[in-house]
């Protein structure tokens, strides 16, 4: 039986974002904190976008203004300090002390990151109705259509300022794939807000490609540790299906995909386990149950919730407490206190607590 999630569990995760130093004074959020180095990694526009969505979720769940303030600092960092209005793109990672993209050699731009940033800005707009966030999200969505769609594929990485696609690499994040559908959800969100059919068509094209290719994405690698990484990416695909979860082919993909992920996860976890994979699978399971796609498997959900909770830090000072670790290798903790893991795990456990209490209401727009 999974432990009951404490009433303040979500706030503990939210407070980690506020108090740990993972959010730099600029408002940008570092990719992770390295406990063995004692310092943050570089600021990431993608991770900052995730932080906006998660902190807005915590604010909506708790009503506490401190989470809204932190989310808005992150959102304004994206719109005012990293957004390139000429290229219609966001750069990748930035040094903590260098918040302006022109202050150092320009990093590349990722399709996936762009969609996550756009969704974060839309999360800020839904709460504040501030057109600054909506305008940049719309421009980002148009930039994604204009620059990343190459030869019927979504180029994963562009060199800046040339906007030329980088050659593909074997790792999943440097090649086109079904995982890109999660970021393509930003197009569907923008269509629902603006009515611009170009956004709807872009999402439909990404959906068609993802459905055609997803079956071969797993296992995708002979090395079990790298298969675990690909489970994380494949769950992005399942999340990206939520706007069209009423379609038979999408429901079937979610049913089959959830089973495949659960089997691989439990097989590989003794060697290498990622906290975000447990959390993502639990969230997908809850959505599928809510949507009538798959009946709730309470035992599996309790196991995933318990495993997710096991990655939380309860001690270690403000750099650790309330945050979640990235993963375990052969049962040993890896030296990463991770904002994405904290966001995914915090949200998944909050959703699970609501489900156990009989009051879960899901909205895909709030999914981190």
Defining traits:
mainly alpha, 368 residues, Glycosyltransferase, three-stranded antiparallel sheet, globular
General description of the model:
The chain has 368 residues and is mainly α. The protein has a single domain (10-366), classed as Alpha/alpha barrel (Glycosyltransferase). It contains twelve helices and 13 strands. The strands form five sheets. It has a three-stranded antiparallel beta sheet with strand order 2-1-13, with helices on one face. The longest helix is centred in the last third of the chain and has 21 residues, at 248-268. The protein is globular, with a radius of gyration of 19 Å.
What is the fold's blueprint, element by element?
Layout: H1 9-19, E1 33-34, E2 39-40, E3 43-44, H2 45-62, H3 65-82, E4 93-94, E5 109-110, H4 111-128, H5 131-148, E6 149-150, E7 153-154, E8 157-159, E9 164-165, H6 181-194, H7 197-213, H8 224-240, H9 248-268, E10 272-274, H10 275-290, H11 298-309, E11 327-329, E12 332-333, E13 336-337, H12 339-357
Antiparallel strand pairs: 1-2, 1-13, 3-4, 5-8, 6-7, 8-9, 10-11, 11-12
Helix pairs in contact: 1-2, 1-12, 2-3, 2-4, 2-12, 3-4, 4-5, 4-6, 6-7, 6-8, 8-9, 8-10, 9-10, 10-11, 10-12, 11-12
Indicate the proportion of strand residues.
5-15%
The CATH topology is given as: Glycosyltransferase
What is the gyration radius calculated from CA atoms? Answer: 19 Å
Taking pLDDT < 50 over at least 5 consecutive residues as the criterion, the unreliable ranges are 98-103
The helix tally amounts to 12
Task: Give the number of DSSP strands.
Answer: 13
Arrangement of strands in the largest sheet:
2-1-13
Helical coverage, percent range: 40-55%
Oligomer: single chain
Q: What is the count of structural domains?
A: 1
